[in-house]
Amino acid sequence: MSISVIGVSYDAAQPATIAEFWAQALGRQVSDGASADFAAIAATDPAASGPFLMFHRVPEGKTVKNRLHLDLSTAELDAETQRLLALGATRLNDNTEEGRIRWITFADPEGNEFDLVNTQ
């Protein structure tokens, strides 16, 4: 079998706006051609790594917890937490597992959950 993941798609109310949040959060750029219906962040950005992210406009809003979310990693949990909050993220939960793995669950400006995991 030869199937591979090419990207991650998000349903969004405002694709260009939420793509800009994620581009800033990840240190990447929104691809040219962003519109009210679609925006993307290319996987080939030489400044950063990560999947191809696509944002598609849908008429309905988010109503329940995500079934899939991104896990981001950092060695600077406190500084990156403050940066994400300044970009418009909302802090939802602080978590610790087995006293050694620490992560914070956030929501992006449209309410999609993601985790920031401490790699120290």
Question: Could you please describe the fold and organization of this structure?
Answer:
The chain has 120 residues and is an alpha/beta fold. Helices cover 19% and strands 35% of the residues. The chain has two helices and seven strands. The strands form two sheets. A four-stranded mixed sheet has the order 4-7-6-5, covered by helices on one side. The protein has a three-stranded mixed sheet with strand order 1-3-2, with helices on one face. The longest helix is centred in the first third of the chain and has 12 residues, at 15-26. The N and C termini lie far apart (37 Å).
Low-confidence stretches: none
Average pLDDT taken over every residue: 91
Can you summarize the main beta sheet? 4 strands, mixed
Portion in strands = 35-45%
Widest beta sheet: strand line-up: 4-7-6-5
Principal-axes geometry comes out as: globular
Care to count the β-strands? 7
Run of helices and strands: EHEEEHEEE
Task: Determine the number of helices (DSSP H or I, runs of at least 4 residues).
Answer: 2
For the termini, the CA-CA separation is: 37 Å
Structural class: alpha/beta
Radius of gyration (CA) equals: 15 Å
Helix content: 10-25%
